[in-house]
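so ive been stuck on this for like two days lol. basically i have the seq below and the ligand is S-adenosylmethionine, smiles is in there too. i just want the complex predicted, nothing fancy, no docking runs or whatever. if the output looks off dont worry ill sanity check it later, just need somthing to start from for the group meeting slides
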Amino acid sequence: MSIAFQLVHGDCFYELKTIPDNSIDTIFADPPYFLSNGGISVQSGKQVCVDKGDWGKGGTPEHIYNFNRKWLELCRPKLKDDGTIWISGTYHNIFVVQRCLQECGYKILNIITWQKTDPPPNLSCRYFNFSTELIIWARKSPKIPHKFNYDVMKELNGGKQMTDVWRLPAVGKWEKTCGKHPTQKPLRLLYRIILASTNKGGTILDPFAGSSTTGIAANLLERNFIGIEKEQEFVELSNRRFNELQDSEKRQKLLDNIKKNDSIATVLVNHARKELRELMIEKGICYLRAGDSKGSLQVTPGFERMKYVLLHTNGENCQMFKLKKEGTFQIWTKENLEKYGFSPEHSPYYIVLHFDNKPMEFLQTPSGLKQRMNTYKARLYPITSFI
Ligand SMILES: C[S@@+](CC[C@H](N)C(=O)[O-])C[C@H]1O[C@@H](n2cnc3c(N)ncnc32)[C@H](O)[C@@H]1O
């Protein structure tokens, strides 16, 4: 499957008209927030001005309304009938966007609160610290059902319904290796949005592409991207980011970083020979050697979020199970395991995990499971590696 990354240098009020109708699965738009008003904030410990550029300058309420009304009107026919649109903003623009969406005939589905886990401090100390952005999710048509990968979101959330509050860090240094955009969105945010509302091979449009975070996340997830950006400097930045994806090592590093999300569930992946794997499943017990032997599970960050165990034999017969209690293990003696019908041989103590022995559905196993397999090694993976 060949995946397109099409970035147009131009004004979206003109360029949107050139996109065929009913061709887009999802639109993500991060339009100007109109908050460049000379205020101050903190970045990397330094006081900085919040002004973003001429495109972000404050406007009259009428200008903000006309601007949003017009691009939202142009976008709607481009969506497929089951297509959806996501628009991010703050109080400066989001309520106007909500009104325009409704006037244009979209149906609002959710208002996501992106709670930044690492917001910069409020220097004036005259307000609560601003730590959120809002993202409105709406569908094209009030009547036609929209696409929503509910199960994928549920899995991402450790088997529980995902809520409309997303706790994610702001954009990290690792996503600014090609330079930075003043209002760059985190890849993790776009990754989730794209996973929620599109399938592989789908097409995502971003009319205010900036540094093309949407396009980079789309490409990593094997979706097509059409972006429109009017500033040459940001088109160049986008192209540098896209070129970076052609280096398979850098591409993998980005994916690993996105998936290394400190709020998502993890999976313990454990090899066991066939008879042992079957017995573990029958009893709902998975064990690893404890102590200094190479079989022990290193208690690495992410262990406390461990929700699943995946058992396999040499990379084959992968089955995933839900742990009875998240992030919890017991230490058992060899004798105790023997009472349950196991024949452990290598250690007096074992780490024991209890799981519900009804196998769960998952979409894929991480590549290299077989190659990296080592009889005595158990590894933690983020749940995103299986989606
Ligand atoms: C808030 S930023 C988007 C940042 C982007 N989400 C990212 O992660 O890099 C808005 C972008 O829209 C661009 N822009 C503003 N008005 C535009 C227009 N009429 N047509 C196309 N791009 C526009 C600005 O140059 C700016 O880069």
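The longest strand covers residues 349-360. The radius of gyration is 24 Å.
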